[in-house]
Design a protein that fits this description.
The complex is a heterodimer of chains A (about 250) and B (about 230). Helices cover about 35% and strands about 30% of the residues of chain A. Chain A contains eight helices and twelve strands. Chain B has helices spanning about 180-185, 190-210, 215-229; strands at about 5-10, 30, 40-45, 50-55, 65-70, 75-85, 90-100, 105-115, 120-130, 135-145, 150-160, 165-175. By secondary structure, chain B is of the alpha/beta class. Classes of the chains: A alpha/beta (about 250), B alpha/beta (about 230). The interface of A and B includes residues 78 and 104 of A.
């Protein structure tokens, strides 16, 4: 059974075909980087993996741990262990981080037939995971992403990832808009959460994050297709000669 | 959230005077049910007094709610709030007239509405500032979320200002629940209905702020849950 297997995936937004036959297989425990220039279809790929409305899969399949991923709702994908760190995290006015995370965790527990998490256990978990990404405790009362700096938003993404403990993390341009210090904190968080049972897809068009989060495999996405696969040597090749060579 | 308009009128160099200690009756909640659908609400607020009223209309109620406030004594204050949640074929209309008749009075209005089904909601809010009601501060906000294609909302703020040293503003919005927020929540494992409930609760929360009425909060939450389905 494949952990994640994308087969001949074609996807459109409106009338425009963005993904033109993607094939990608990710094993359990592996970190894969998907690199590519702007407009290659990187964000569309992450949108399709997480079930974002407005994207239409016209053909192809995605199998995730033996299930048909494309038949699952976004929340069902989250319960199955998929998490995406958003390129542009959304602000939710009026909803505190505490309330947001508690609702998220208890929704999953409910789906699994479990009773809600105990208040004390939840607060302990929050405290521990906030420390991991160096978020100040007062953020727990803040409205989700409202008034956060770019770096704070990305740290909040990794904090949520730590809280939800996914088996497949998708980092969509997590390095964009981060200074070196914030990048290091985010990368340390990602690395701390990585175990042999967990996989990650790091989507980026810079190599910077990949200096900290070391991928096992690298794929180049260009004009809606994977045009090159390889190991880390591919990162240096891109660094040296750009995406035009593919 | 959707279209919005707001207008600020600010004349002269206004310096706020100390707020008098409220001496009026404690904050009240008026729940509009079928038996009150014809009632008129009229309040006269005297010098140094403070009026605080919160109107609540839950699904299953059609009503026209005329509210008139007369601020007749210097330094009088009025704080009017409202939540209306309508569904089915409900028709809810607030018709508010805020008279600033004396100097140095302050009024705040905050009405937030959720309209679902084929319901029709309207908010007519008038602020009238009399010629000698200098140093008036009058604020009005009306925000609406339309949850279905058939629901209708009409919001009409109106200012009539005959004094020249006043601070008045009004803002009105009509929009939908934000789908990006919903997807973000769903991607964290919050089901779609629950995401909508969170959005709607946070939308009405500013109106309920300061009211510690658990029974009312839970009645509002269950009304909201019925709309999220």
């Amino acid at each position: 059974m494949a952990f994640l297997k994308i087969t001949d995936l074609h996807a459109s937004v409106g009338d425009k075909e963005i993904l033109k036959g993607i094939n990608l297989e990710i094993g359990r425990g592996e970190i894969h980087a998907v690199m590519g220039p702007n407009g290659a279809g990187k964000s569309t790929l992450s949108a399709i993996l997480t079930g974002k409305p407005g994207y239409e899969v016209t053909s192809g399949t995605i199998e995730f741990m033996g299930r048909d991923l494309l038949a699952m709702k976004p929340e069902e994908r989250a319960w199955a262990g998929i998490f995406m760190s958003f390129q542009y995290p959304i602000e939710i006015p009026g909803v505190s981080i505490t309330n947001f995370m508690k609702t998220a965790i208890n929704s999953k527990r409910k789906a699994e037939g479990l009773v809600p998490i105990k208040g004390g256990d939840f607060l302990k978990l929050m405290k521990e995971k906030m420390a991991l990404v160096q978020m100040k405790p007062e953020f727990s009362k803040r409205e989700v992403n409202v008034g956060f700096s770019g770096g704070e938003k990305k740290r909040n993404e990794i904090f949520q990832m730590a809280m939800l403990d996914p088996v497949l993390a998708i980092l969509d341009e997590t390095d964009s808009g981060l200074d070196v210090d914030a990048l290091k904190i985010v990368a340390d968080g990602v690395n701390a959460l990585h175990t042999p049972e967990k996989s990650a897809i790091v989507i980026t068009h810079y190599q910077k994050l990949l200096e900290y989060v070391r991928p096992d495999r690298v794929h180049v996405l260009k004009a809606g297709q994977i045009v090159a696969d390889g190991g880390r040597e591919l990162i240096d090749k891109i660094e040296k000669d750009g995406f035009e060579q593919f | 959230m959707g279209s919005s308009s707001s207008k600020e009128i600010d004349h002269g160099n206004y310096v706020s005077t100390p707020v008098p200690v409220p001496t009026g009756p404690a904050a009240r909640v008026i729940i509009i049910d079928g038996s009150r659908s014809q009632e008129e609400y009229s309040f006269v607020v005297g010098e140094g007094e403070k009026l605080e009223e919160t109107f609540v209309v839950l699904p299953g109620v059609s009503a026209r709610i005329p509210v008139t406030v007369d601020l007749v004594g210097p330094g009088a204050e009025a704080d009017l709030k409202g939540i209306y949640i309508s569904d089915g074929t409900d028709e809810v209309t607030f018709d508010i007239t805020m008279h600033h008749r004396a100097p140095g009075c302050t009024s705040h209005q905050l009405f937030n509405g959720l309209a679902s089904g084929q319901s029709k909601c309207a908010f007519f809010g008038k602020i009238i500032v009399a010629p000698d009601a200098q140093k008036t501060e009058a604020y009005q906000e009306n925000h609406n979320i339309v949850l279905s294609d058939e629901a209708r909302v009409n919001t009409k703020p109106r200012l009539e200002i005959y004094a020249d040293d006043v601070k008045c503003s009004h803002g009105a919005t009509v929009g939908k629940l934000n789908e990006d927020e919903q997807f973000y929540m769903r991607s964290r494992g919050i089901p779609e209905d629950e995401a909508k409930v969170l959005q709607m609760i946070s939308f009405v929360a500013p109106v309920l702020e300061g009211l510690e009425d658990e029974a009312l909060a839970s009645a509002i939450e269950s009304a909201i849950r019925s709309l999220a389905k």
